[in-house]
């Protein structure tokens, strides 16, 4: 019975460690994405309008 309890505790510990690792990686990825604001030079509303070019055939 002791061996079965030890295996159960080991499996629970392993699954807990995996869950903590996944949560940590998800949190770090999310924080990295949140902390980088959008590049202001790519704002579509402030782009100068280009003159229309026509092709002559």
**Radius of gyration from CA coordinates:** 27 Å
Helical content (DSSP H or I, runs of 4+): 55-70%
Q: Give the number of helices.
A: 1
How is the biggest beta sheet arranged? none
pLDDT averaged residue by residue: 81
Overall 3D geometry?
rod-shaped
| Distance N to C terminus | 89 Å
Q: Quote the beta fraction.
A: under 5%
Q: Low-confidence parts lasting 5 or more residues at pLDDT below 50?
A: none
Q: How many E strands? A: 0
Structural class: mainly alpha
Along the chain, the helix and strand elements come as H
What can you tell me about this protein's structure?
Keywords: Membrane, Transmembrane, Transmembrane helix. The structure is a single chain. The chain is mainly α. The protein is 60% helix and 0% strand. The chain is built from one helix and no strands. It is rod-shaped and about 85 Å long. The model has no long low-confidence stretch (mean pLDDT 81).
List the helices and strands and how they pair.
Elements lengths: L1 H34 L22
Short description:
The protein is mainly α. Helices cover about 60% and strands about 0% of the residues.
Features:
57 residues; mainly alpha; 1 helix
């Amino acid at each position: 019975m002791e061996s079965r309890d030890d295996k159960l505790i080991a499996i629970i510990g392993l699954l807990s460690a995996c869950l903590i690792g996944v949560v940590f990686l998800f949190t770090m990825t999310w924080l990295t994405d949140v902390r980088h604001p959008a590049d202001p030079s790519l704002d579509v509303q402030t782009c100068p309008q280009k003159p229309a070019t026509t092709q002559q055939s």
